Amino acid sequence: MVEGLDSGTKLEDAGLRATEVRRRVLSVLLGAGGSLSHRELAALLPELDRISIYRNLKLLKKANLVHGVQGIDGVLRYIVNPDGADGCPGRHAHFLCVDCGRMSCLLDQALPRIEAPRGAIVRGKQLLVYGICPSCARAGATK
Q1: What contacts 50, CB < 8 A, 6 or more positions away?
Q2: What are the tens digits of pLDDT across the range 27-74?
């Protein structure tokens, strides 16, 4: 969990009503220590229907409380925005562990300059670094 803030406080600070579903979805994401897919969230919150989880993820994303990153497996994974950031800072990479599936923000590293084709309208940039996280490496993962 993020120090000093619970899910209700984060929701209220973002101008959202702290409904039970929103609190629970955000609380699970805060406690995950990384990212979770919609399917993983649904497995951790079996009492909630998948549509409610999806709608609330979309709302949390719009309120800049979480952001989604598509992994190498094509699955969209959600991660809580770093504290102190005004939403997800647009210029950072993510690290995805191919063993445990955890994703984390790499905020302190500069991204390479990449230009879009002339005349294109850029909606965002994403850089995904993947490999084996330190925890999995210590446990002997070799994928």
Answers
A1: 38, 42
A2: 999 888 778 899 999 999 999 999 999 999 999 988 888 888 887 778
